[in-house]
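The aim of this short unit is practical: by the end, you should be able to scan a pair of folded records and say something sensible about each. We start with the first protein, listed as its amino acid sequence and then its structure tokens.
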Amino acid sequence: MKLNRKEYIDKVRACFIGKNIGGTIGGPTEGKREILDVKGFSTPKGQPLPNDDLDLQLIWLRALEMQGPQNINSEVLGRYWLNFIPPSWAEYGICKHHMLQGIEPGVSGSSDINIWSHSNGAWIRSEIWATTNPLLVDHAVRYALHDAMVDHGMGEGTIAAAFVAAMESAAFGITDIHELIRIGLSKIDPETRTAKTVKEVLRLHEEGKTWQEVRNAIVELNADIGDGWFQAPSNIAFVLIGLLYGEGDYKKSLLIAVNCGDDTDCTGATIGALMGIMHGTKVLPEDWVAYIGNRIVTCSINVGTSPRIPSTIDDLVRRVGRMAEICCYFNGNGVYTDHLTGLDVEFTDGPTELERNLSSLLDRPWAENNEQDDIRALRLSLKPNAFAVHRGSITAIVRYIDGLNLNAGETKHIGLTLVNNVKAYGNEPLTANVLLHVPEGCFTKESGFSFSVPCWTAMTPMAHSQEYILSFEVDEVVGSKQKAILEIEVPEQGKTHYIDIVFSKYLA
């Protein structure tokens, strides 16, 4: 498949201008829980409001530039978070606190220890993954999951991030909102609250309910999550209400979403970005574009320590465009070909050429992936209280089976799965010699064992072990925080890896 560079850049520009427009219009009413009557900007001309929705994406862009698309995972993004993102509010602060305690990304946002795991912080920053992976929907979803797991674990916030990233990536070739919603739903568990909420919006819209009636029904449906507010399922629904009832009109769509209330800067920013991707700059109202200007204003980045970040939409668009060509090489038609969809994406100065059956190719369930190394490891780690540690030839998936707390007299269980990352013909299975070093005050009857990690072949790509269960007894709890250490020797690679598993008597 071919994407015309000018058309692609136009959509990216519209995406981020729309992000600024929606965030600035919705910002002053953020947190108001009633149906609103916002009619447009209430801030000075040429002064976009700072918005964490966009801020974090600037850091993720720099991570892509510095690390390369093939090296982005929750572990790497967690390090960038600690280095460059200072806010301590809500899920941001909780996940950062946990990471500073030694709890790995993925578990740092777990619903067991993070009351904000169902909130909005992740899906609102999905555009960077979609714009750098246009039409490579599964890869956009993969990155969004790695991102969201840091501060939302496997809560609804992470589910929503996968949904939005899929829609936004697909929107580079598809403009029908119902098709985009179907693609988004195909990438998430149908039993999640996010999926059920989306389906309820579609049902009520089909029945001919007004947008206000649909909004009120959704608020009631999700009243039990996050006190009913600032949670992902309902705010995703407000974006969709705007799209469905806005009838393609940019202003009408955005204002309906904002006037649903609650996290209005997020809903406004996301619908503004998505409509920009769908239709390009031609959909943006000229008066709103002139009013917002070209500046990017930040509030959630430590500018003193951050690597160079874009300060204008022009700079952001230029760098995203450059990164997209690299991502599409690695993830599309180069190193990591998208075997699930069969889509190869390349940029051209000629006309855009899309697959005729594009929608059907993109709406296959994400779990039907081709078991590539990075995707396989991610899918194995998509469990409550699980995290992945990437160590070259292997990736270790560690799971807290009984939670993260320590109590005297109990038995703790740890799940361990190893992924063989060596992908080469003629490869042999890896040997893993595992030794568990238990926390002080604990003991184990069997601290060490060995097992084989299958190798990759073209016919048997499932190059990971079964999950092995390690256990230890807690005799007494010494101090407020303790850690077990997994020592994993891989003799065929001449490496020994050490993984900290942090426990606390204060964590759920």
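Turning to the second protein, read its sequence before its tokens, just as you did above.
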Amino acid sequence: MKKLSYLAALLAFLIACGGGDADSDLATSSAGKTSTSNPTQAAATTTQAAATTTQAAATTAQAAATTTQAAATATQAAATATQAAATTTQQDSKQMLSVVKVPPPDFTATKGFGRFTSAEETAFAAAVSEHFYSADIRMGISAAIFDGQNLWSGTEGFARENVPMQVETPLSVMSSSKTFLSALILHQIDEGLYGLNDRLSELLVGHSGYERLNPAIISDATVEELLLMTAGHADKDTSAGGRNLNYVVTKPNWVPVDTLTLTTDMARSPGAFEYSNTSSYLLGLIAQYQSQTELNALYQSELLERLSIQAGLRPVVEIPDNMALPHADFTKYGGAPGWGDLTQMVPLGTPPGYKMDYFEQDGRLAWSAAGIISTPENMARWAYELMSPNGTALSDASRELLTTSFIDKPITLSGNTQKYGFHIAQREYKLADGTMFVTHGHPGGGGGYGSVLYYSPVLDIAVSVVANSELGYQRGQCGDFRAGDYGNPLVCAARGLFESVTSNR
């Protein structure tokens, strides 16, 4: 995944840019207005006609009385019409909602599931350890495997300096987060809020933040095009180091639409695949605006709570005290040469004593595209509930739609050849015994973390591997690079978990 980073832009943090508050991404839409002048005019005309008739029929008292009664009835009807017209002006409108911080989930070790065999669990631990320690530069790793009944998890290394990684330690899963977004979109479609063929211009009408975006950059697109990343939208540019990036990551009262201003390249014609977090941001806006509910709250109420899965969305959730800290090369993120904890990095050009709020700033860049924090235990269970026929995250119809959404034309994602669907990828590779193996899921990386999330339809097993360093950018010890089957240490560890199952059954 193209990493969500600050790069040279953080050189300008010395001058934090202020400005007025932006409109919420859940902006108020205007109600329609109906004129009431015509019914009133009709009543006046009818009354005048009645008066004329009364004068003409002065010699016939009964006729005059009848006409006067008719006029009174017409006047009453006009008044009723006027009242009805006034009522039609009181239409419902979408309400503005602000971004409010909420406490993180209570990340604890998952209980209540069975165990794999002793031989399998020994092989699991060996596979994770082997591929983690094969990395030239590393910090910590956490992994889990789940088959619907049995759950195994294990860790190696450190969550932060001198603090061992634990199975309950939360990490950022980066673009594996996209699986939550596509699930929510399909769920809302199931609920009848909108459809795959509905367009941005229809779904975000009245959204003041969206309507201020440049249509030549954020062009109109369907929900399906956004899910497939074929809308023609470029990804955001965080390399220029300009005023706008600093404004977005430091401004008070940030709202998600602010981050879309970092997409500056003109849109291309829709149809061809182009990996773009911009598409994920737009889907997040749709989910919020159509439901009038903040995105993290939607994840909790619509997906996670009924599955008892712990996960939260940055930058909305507060960072847990035991969060595994991100580690990477400082020079890639605007700092002096060195490798270490990105939360302690000082961007070049900043004054002595300056400390950036890493999680807040990176969370604003990540949000619906890469903002989920969780643990591999929870992520493996999520992948199973999402993609297994035995899972309950989605309806059967939506799960079938998700797992058959892959475009035939292969693409390259995280150095690997695969097919892309509704914010999930399908990958095929060989196991050690030569068996061809297919998985569904999504990788993630950047910002000091790396992750892979896989589900095997053949084995009906899900795997999650997450590290608090960028292991996804290192060469692993598995796969065939020449055949487009590149394996980084995370991929290799996941493959090792699958192989351990096949070889012990």
